[in-house]
Amino acid sequence: MVKDRDFMQRALELAIMGRGYTSPNPMVGAVLVKQGRIIGQGFHERYGDKHAEIRAIENAVEPVEGATLYCNLEPCCHTIPGKKTPPCTHRLIQERIRKVVVSTIDPNPHVSGSGLRALKAAGIEIQSGIFAREATLLNEAYFKFIQTGEPFIHLKIAQSLDGRIATRSGDARWITDVSARQMVQEMRQNADAILVGIGTVLVDNPRLTLRTKNGRQPYRIVLDSRLRIPDHATLLQDQFADRTIIITSPDADKARREALAHRGIRVEVLNKNSSEFIDLDELMVFLQRLGVASLLVEGGSAVFTRFIQKRRFDKLSVFIAPILIGEGREAIQDLHIKRLQDALRLELVTFRTIGHQMLVEGYRDIHRTFGKLAEELTCSQDSWKKWEPSLS
Amino acid sequence: MVKDRDFMQRALELAIMGRGYTSPNPMVGAVLVKQGRIIGQGFHERYGDKHAEIRAIENAVEPVEGATLYCNLEPCCHTIPGKKTPPCTHRLIQERIRKVVVSTIDPNPHVSGSGLRALKAAGIEIQSGIFAREATLLNEAYFKFIQTGEPFIHLKIAQSLDGRIATRSGDARWITDVSARQMVQEMRQNADAILVGIGTVLVDNPRLTLRTKNGRQPYRIVLDSRLRIPDHATLLQDQFADRTIIITSPDADKARREALAHRGIRVEVLNKNSSEFIDLDELMVFLQRLGVASLLVEGGSAVFTRFIQKRRFDKLSVFIAPILIGEGREAIQDLHIKRLQDALRLELVTFRTIGHQMLVEGYRDIHRTFGKLAEELTCSQDSWKKWEPSLS
Question: Which of A196, B162, B172, B338 is 20 to 30 A off residue A190, Cα-Cα?
Fold first, then answer.
């Protein structure tokens, strides 16, 4: 049993190496084991590339016949238009793999247990549940997106102990220290798009870029219903300006819109709702069209408040610095909550120390985010579960 | 070395058994060891009773001559009017103790190293520094009080993740769960007095009592400059009404003042400052007169804000529940902080999980609170320091 966990841990470590490059696919790692030794390993390196299982087979240093495959996700078994790779189950059967161990099933409606069933029908022994919790959390964005078609929405707040994100005059640099900001880089790596309100652009003029890795940059989306973004904003000026998208409303000045378009800046017009805020339902439709499977919302206060009010978020991460600011810009404004029993209670909450601050993270509703995988999160972490596919 | 730590840990465990009963004296435990075995132990059980060292000698099951004494605080060596016990150093010398090991010196100006010097002069081996940090934190209130004559002021806040202590309508029951409330009981045990503002009394009608132990009840102090406290308030009605003190201003209605006095309720008149709040300097003088060495401030928002604004606190404990309330009653209001660099940064911050919430604790200024013991807190926890008294 201990050995099983070691091999699956290795598979998870491999999976993480794809962070930032696989979306909207999941991060997957695979390890092939024969007589207690790893003979092949691989991970899904980039969207469109080969799956982890195939990589492990191709990298194997010995014949893989009779080997056991450890993989954090159920192997795929489907062919649909647009899918870029043939089903992994075919290859595993063809290569005469003896046993397949996975952390969880793939809730993708085209798979969802059928992969394991196909393997079992071909006489391959199967087992599931090892590090199910870790594997589920690792691909949180994928699991939301594949089951609902909607992006995983992650709100990230950096605040003082008394819940302020800036002084009254807007001074917000820096509430958190460099170790927290390093962690924000990881969060951005997981995101297909980063979103802020125009207020944040006007006060902070942020870059919203990935600074730790070369390569992919997430979209940078600004909610700016009146097109107040100035020409000198970094988001319009730097080398990633083609990744900037301004979301505005029909009320915005047309000349300004054209001027921005003329400079090659993408401007999208969405409707506002009754409270003069870009309609979040329309925004979701736009993000889906854009292929965004995960969105990181970085502020400011009005944006956080609106996403929370409308229950349009999956995960909340709050960095809390041990400082007091007093009256200033509050992280979260009015949520129309009158009684304490109606307060929004986060689920699956974790507390961690990051540098000089604390990081509190929780989910709004794990059943809405993780769907059929939610139960992997509510079992105790040490539980051991053998998934038995029915061949019906 | 490991043995030394074991015996000192036992001394600290014994010390804690006096919690709530020793103020304004410190909590002290003592262990006598001979040939690696504990032969006697004791603790300071109650203010005015025998010191821990004497208890350990009296409880010893073997002759104590040649034994080593482990004690979290330097033995006393002084006789001053009002002191209730003879100097422990005399007794230790008389009993021919071989060695004395302490965690820290006693910064009491009447002791402050003289106890250890006296022992050394009598040929007793001495050592200090074991669990110095733990021993310093254990008696935080004593250390502040004995060095400054002012009470240790501890602010306790229970808030949501977004920094609110109640909804807009004042609903605050309960933001935290039973395990946090249990911890508040411990905080109250350490306090000679608990203080709240009249707003908290009007909205919550709290009891502010110690529910876990029989015996001592801290004073219950209400800041009520206009004497708005209603006759039916629990603080005026229950069996501890004689522990309730109402602090009011000269503006308060005289008839009401007399009516309360007539009912046996203690009312104190203190001046207000320019912003119509009871003057905190006057309050400190009053607390000193009352013999309060440690004050626990439990709210509400206006009271927290005033104590923080005036830098009139030593320690802040914030329970943070993983819930969002949105606009409501903020824990802390205006602190007149304009630039982030002027934000109040807590020192010696710790984060802990307590039940479903987190507890963040920190000190405003460890040098002001702990005086000459502050350095015990800034060394690394595993540091080992031998205190060498000079016999000058």
Answer: B162
pLDDT grade for B142, boundaries at 50, 70 and 90: very high
Instruction: Clarify whether B53 is annotated catalytic.
Output: yes
User: Does B202 contact A at CB distance below 8 Å?
Assistant: no
| Facing residue for A161 by CB, picked from B168, B309, B318 | B318
> pTM of this prediction?
0.92
pLDDT of residue A1: 52
pLDDT tens profile A200-243: 999 999 999 998 656 689 999 999 999 999 999 999 999 999 99
Residue B185 contacts residue B218 (beta carbons within 8 Å): no
Q: Would you call B172 and A340 a contact, using CB atoms and an 8 Å cutoff?
A: yes
Q: pLDDT value at position A261?
A: 93
Partner residue facing B327 (CB), from A169, A325, A333: A333
pLDDT of A384 over the 90 cut: no
- Look at the alpha carbons of B113, B115, B121, B125 in this order and tell me if their dihedral is positive or negative: negative
**The pLDDT of residue A84 is above 50:** yes
Chain A CB contacts of B180 below 8 Å: none
CB A146 within 8 A of CB A107: yes
Secondary structure of residue A9 in the 3-state scheme: helix
In this structure, are residues B59 and B45 in contact, taking their beta carbons and an 8 Å threshold?
A: no
pLDDT surpasses 50 at A282? yes
Alpha-carbon span A351 to B382, nearest angstrom: 25
The whole-angstrom distance between B238's CA and the closest CA on chain A is: 28
Closest chain B residue to the Cα of A161, Cα to Cα: B163
B121 touches chain A (CB under 8 A): no
* For range B79-84, the mean pLDDT: 82
Q: What is the pLDDT of residues B46-67, one digit of tens each?
A: 999 999 999 999 999 999 999 9
Could you please report the per-residue DSSP string of B238-275?
STTGGGEEEEE-TTS-HHHHHHHHHTT-EEEE--B-TT
Catalytic one of B45, B53, B74, B298: B53
Q: Which residue has the tokens 């909607």?
A: A150
Give the mean model confidence (pLDDT) for residues B180-191: 94
Question: How many Cβ contacts (< 8 angstroms) between chains A and B?
Answer: 146
**Using CB atoms and an 8 Å cut-off, which of residues 277-336 of chain A contact chain B?**
305, 308-309, 316, 318, 320, 322-328, 330-336
Question: pLDDT tens across B6-48, in order?
Answer: 999 999 999 999 999 999 999 999 999 999 999 999 999 999 9
Q: Which has more confidence, A382 or B111?
A: B111
Per residue, what are the HEC states of B353-372? EECCEEEEEEECCHHHHHHH
Do residues B320 and B156 touch, judged by C-beta distance below 8 A?
A: no
Residue B339, pLDDT score: 94
ipTM of the complex: 0.90
Of A180, A183, A235, A225, which is closest to residue A204 (Cα–Cα)? A235
Q: How far is it, in rounded angstroms, from Cα A51 to Cα B15?
A: 62
DSSP B170-226: ---TTSS-HHHHHHHHHHHHT-SEEEEEHHHHHHH-------SSSS---EEEEE-TT
Please tell me which residue of chain B has the smallest CA distance to A174: B340
Picking from A275, A45, A296, the residue whose alpha carbon sits closest to that of residue A186 is: A296
Phi, psi torsion values for A7, nearest 5 degrees: -70, -40
What per-residue string of b and e applies to A275-302 under the rule 16 or more CB within 10 Å gives b? eebbbbebbbebbeebebbbbbbbbbbb
Q: Closest to B173 (Cβ–Cβ): which among A175, A305, A340?
A: A340
Spatial CA neighbour of A297 closest among A213, A192, A164, A211 = A192
Round the CA-based radius of gyration of chain B to a whole number and report it.
23
Q: Where are the beta strands (DSSP E) in chain A?
A: 29-34, 37-43, 68-73, 99-104, 125-128, 152-160, 164-167, 193-197, 219-223, 244-248, 266-269, 294-297, 315-321, 323-324, 328-330, 344-345, 347-354, 357-363
